[in-house]
Write a structure and sequence with these properties.
The complex is a heterodimer. Helix content of chain A is 32%, strand content 20%. Chain A is of the alpha/beta class. Chain B folds into four domains: 58 residues, no CATH class; 76 residues, no CATH class; 83 residues, Double Stranded RNA Binding Domain (2-Layer Sandwich); 69 residues, no CATH class. Chain B is rod-shaped, with a radius of gyration of 48 Å. Classes of the chains: A alpha/beta, B mainly alpha.
Chain lengths: 164, 365
């Protein structure tokens, strides 16, 4: 009995504690700089809800169509493998950290498109060799022909849509 | 899309000051010079000398050389870029070199390919801008949106024409009989086979739905007698469409399309031969067992003929119209009657029934 009275007293002194909202939604939000030096590509500048309206997808295949979902998880895993390989294999030539690599699938062919830059070092023979190696390696790994159709730009500024 | 950049600034960099001092920092304050020079003027909390460790590198640092260059103290040889040869051999964009009027585009872009801004001589732009009048949409070079979308630059009208010319030798002319008379298709080609091939991306080209085969047979072309036809229709059940006169056989129980096709042909053969068989119990067939209500042998026919004969015998009742009540008009009425009895009753059909009946009996319309 006594304990319960104490309990009630303790309850009466309690209050609902409130804190400010934690606005954790960070997708598509870019932080601007005071001197407008932060580079934004078109892909970055458009918000996630603009996908399919203002910007299109970074992966093109038929496995996400109705009645064609036969190996969708495989496709997602393959995409990640390809993206990581390209990021790791062309570290000197990446544009915006290799976040914008387009993967297209046509028939049994996997096509990797996007942009690379040569501002640091232009070694044409080396690039040809690396393209050949990447194509061959990914073809063996994924058991299907892989084509690299990546275009070179002078520097990262060439893909800049805006500076904020 | 989000990219983190760590920009660290050294707020208290002593190195820069030391460099400035080394180059010609005579105008700096004395105290600063002492500190920068690594003097022993600074005491630590124990009162001992704080000897700052600073090892000047033997080579001149970048800032030092830049300052010396700027002030003209020394002359430095300007060296060309180490990748100069590669940069010189770099080709200018092909779109600038090419003459779009003279060259064949099919040779430049023969097959499906990702958009390449250096090759396509079109002044295209893609992307949105909040205010297009102020700033034009994103340019062709380095435009990822143009790279993403599938293009049809390999399917220009001349390219399609070229392809058609190339495969023309494999084509046979369309049958002229069918061109002149399209309705004769079912007569010349009584069996049509439908199947679907599914093309989609993936390492496997198999699709289980491609095994389904639909076979459509124009039953009238089987040249069966009336009894045989009725038996075939009864065996085919709901596979026979009365309106079009076509029987549809859909086979999907085998694994491959070829097997299903063979099975469909087998089913057709079996149906055909089964329909031709005459069993003992076929003779037991009654009028009520027929698929359709027949005019011949019906109560209506007997009553009608009886009525017509009575009318002929009656002297006062002479048929007004010529030829009413003869065999031809009875047959005509019979056809109408059969259609009326074997289909859904509508207002028009009932009116037609009345009209025919009046005509048969010679009553004024």
């Amino acid at each position: 009995m006594l304990r319960s009275i104490q309990h009630v007293e303790a309850l009466s002194s309690r209050q609902i504690s409130t804190t400010s909202m934690l606005l954790k939604n960070r997708a598509g939000k870019t932080k601007s700089t005071s001197n407008r030096t932060q580079l934004l590509t078109y892909e970055m500048a458009q918000k996630p809800h603009h996908i399919g309206v203002r910007k299109s997808w970074l992966t093109w295949h038929s496995q996400n169509l109705e009645e064609f979902r036969q190996s969708q998880p495989l496709v997602v895993a393959q995409d990640e493998v390809v993206r990581r390989f390209i990021r790791g294999f062309f570290p000197q030539n990446l544009v915006v950290s290799g976040n914008e690599i387009v993967i297209k699938r046509r028939g049994n062919v996997l096509i990797v498109a996007g942009f690379l830059q040569y501002s640091r070092r232009l070694d044409i023979r080396r690039i040809y060799w690396m393209f050949g190696f990447a194509e061959e390696f990914l073809s063996i790994l994924l058991k299907q022909p892989v084509k690299l159709e990546m275009a070179f730009v002078e520097s990262e500024e060439d893909v800049a849509y805006n500076y904020i | 899309m989000h990219r983190l950049t760590h920009v660290s600034t050294r707020n208290r960099s002593s190195l820069a000051e030391k460099l400035r001092n080394a180059v010609g920092g005579q105008d700096f304050g004395k105290a600063k010079q002492i500190v920068a020079g690594g003097s022993i003027a600074v005491k630590d909390e124990h009162g001992e000398d704080f000897r700052e460790l600073y090892v000047m590198p033997k080579r001149k640092l970048r800032g030092q050389t830049q300052l010396e260059q700027a002030t003209g103290r020394t002359e430095y040889k300007t060296r060309s870029r180490f990748d100069l040869m590669d940069r010189l051999t770099k080709r200018p964009p092909r779109s600038e070199e090419m003459d779009p009027e003279a060259q064949k585009w099919c040779d430049v872009w023969p097959a499906a390919r990702t958009f390449a801004s250096s090759v396509v001589p079109l002044p295209v732009r893609m992307g949105t801008r909040p205010n297009v009048e102020k700033r034009a949409p994103f340019k062709k070079e380095g435009n990822l949106e143009l790279v993403k979308i599938p293009n049809f630059l390999h399917l220009t009208p001349p390219a399609i024409q070229q392809h058609c010319q190339a495969i023309k030798k494999f084509c046979t002319p369309f049958p002229p009989e069918l061109l002149s008379n399209p309705s004769a298709t079912c007569q010349h080609l009584p069996i049509s086979i439908e199947y679907s091939t599914y093309i989609h991306q993936g390492t496997s080209i198999r699709d289980i739905r491609s095994r389904v085969v639909t076979m459509k047979i124009h039953v009238a072309e089987l040249k069966l007698s009336e009894n045989q036809m009725e038996k075939l229709i009864r065996l085919a059940a709901n596979r026979y469409d009365e309106k079009t006169g076509k029987m549809t056989i859909i086979t999907d129980r085998c694994h491959t399309r070829q097997q299903n096709l063979d099975y469909a042909h087998y089913l057709l053969t079996v149906l055909y031969h089964e329909a031709q068989k005459v069993e003992k119990w076929d003779e037991l067939k009654n009028r009520t067992d027929a698929l359709k209500v027949e005019f011949d042998g019906s109560n209506t026919k007997t009553k009608l003929i009886d009525l017509l004969e009575k009318a002929k015998l009656t002297p006062g009742l002479s048929p007004s119209a010529a030829g009413c009540g003869d065999q031809k008009s009875i047959d005509e009425f019979g056809e109408m009657w059969k259609a009326y009895r074997n289909s859904e009753e509508t207002v028009e059909k009932t009116r037609e029934y009345g009209r025919q009946m009046k005509k048969l009996l010679g009553i004024q319309q």
